[in-house]
Amino acid sequence: MGPADRRxxxxxxxxxxxxxxxxxxxxxxGEVLGPIVAPAVGIISFVCSIGNVPLVAVLWNGxxxxxxxxxxxxxxxxxxPILDIYRRYYGWRMAGFLLxxxxxxxxxxxLAVEFxxxxxxxxxxxxxxxxxxxxxxxxxxxxxxxxxxxLAATLVWRYFRRGGGWAMLxxxxxxxxxxxxxxxxxxxx
Length: 189
Prior knowledge:
Layout: H1 3-12, H2 14-19, H3 30-45, H4 52-62, H5 66-74, H6 80-90, H7 92-120, H8 140-161, H9 166-171
């Protein structure tokens, strides 16, 4: 990594931190190392859902391989807050199993895609992904958001008008005791 690259990394912020973990040149083993290291970086960065896409653009511009990009995007399934949810819901053993299984799957998928893209000769070498600032504009998505917001409000209104209420919502948060589940018809389980 030369002096110009270091200056650019400092300006990009997140790239500076993450580039320390990831290879800069795909010809020096980055095809293999990127998919292996990228999920680990994704776990500790815990940018969830669509928030990791701009971060991946920064990583792509910084030199991560395409398989590494794919593995990093998948890593939002095993970020620290979600691992904590797995631990609370399933216990330590299952949370550990999910972590290892998902991590291995992410690495395997990243490597498979990396080598498939190279074998087909469709690897993109230009590193010019752009991260632009979002702005509010009136377009079709705005109108769709308004339509579905009105639909959701109508469904909530209908729920409360038909007898649903706070007591019913509170019941949904309590576990069902043995023998309380509904029986359909007179058959036995």
